[in-house]
Amino acid sequence: MEGGAKQRWLPPGQSGWLPPGQSATGRFPVVGESAPPPEALDLDRWRLTIEGAVHQPIELGYDELLDRPQHDLTFDVHCVTGWSRRATTFTGLPLAEVVDLAGGPRPDARFVRFEAFSARGHDTSLPLPRALAECWLVHSVDGRALEPAHGWPLRVVTPSRYFYKSLKWVRRIDVLVDDRLGYWERESAYHNGADPWPGDQRFTTGSLRPAQAAAFRGATRFDRYRGRVLIGLDLRAWRPSSADLRRLQLKGCDLRDARLAQADLREANISLSDLRGADLSGADLRDADVEGADLRGADLRGADLRGAAASATRLVGARVERLRWAGVSGLLEDEEAWLAERAPSA
Hints:
Layout: E1 6-8, E2 23-24, E3 47-52, E4 58-61, H1 62-66, E5 71-78, E6 83-94, H2 95-101, E7 111-116, E8 123-127, H3 128-134, E9 136-141, E10 144-145, E11 155-157, E12 170-176, H4 183-187, H5 210-217, E13 229-231, E14 249-251, H6 333-342
Parallel strand pairs: 1-5, 2-6, 3-12, 13-14
Antiparallel strand pairs: 3-4, 5-6, 6-9, 7-8, 7-12, 9-10, 9-11
């Protein structure tokens, strides 16, 4: 590929551009961690290691990467939380070129793992053929340097997968014989396939057996569940015995018509859950994660959403009188405009 070349990646066999369950946005919401540790931004000390099942493991400085010919790659970004940004152009170089600097993969290599400069040690993995065909290491977006919150000085992008397969602040590339599940795949049961187009590869399924789900639904205290990720529970019309739901992680759950008035949901994670028709009046959702949650028709009167993460959250049609929402991050354009008109005091 010649220096300065431009490439447009298109999903094979798709007539439209928006996968199931996604909402279009012109914004670029920040998701996941928003700040790396200081060493990730110190370019004098910054190093990228390529090791594992390669012929010549190497370590590269930032200038060594940027001195190589840089190219543009344009594709549609799809985040697992439910937003999609069309025709986003990143600048950098293909992963295959960098792996070639390490002598290329050994014959027994089958996967690639990316590790981040990250307080929680974020990582993710991909099959080797897909990684070499698709992944790029990029430093700029739409003609400007990435913001640190979006992965500067260097991040991975993988056009065909949900964006959690596009690791921020990459520091190490391991070529592997055997796969290792990444951070979000281990900790939040995100699907290791991460293909947006089938519509069913956001999470793996079934975090609790039916008897365990019934025990959760009828629990009078929730201390034992805090910090545990619960996926896809049927909690329709749920009336919890305790209002203390702090820090529960109820991802992709069916909470339609749940009775959660005055509930304490601070720092809870109800991302991608269906809360249509739920009663959340007076609920405390400060610093909660409601990304991708469907709150259309929910009762949010007098609720407190301050500081919540809300990328791709659906709110149009909710009852929002006296809703407090200062500091909410990630709202898409239409949702924010609708909410500002109906709850202007925030």
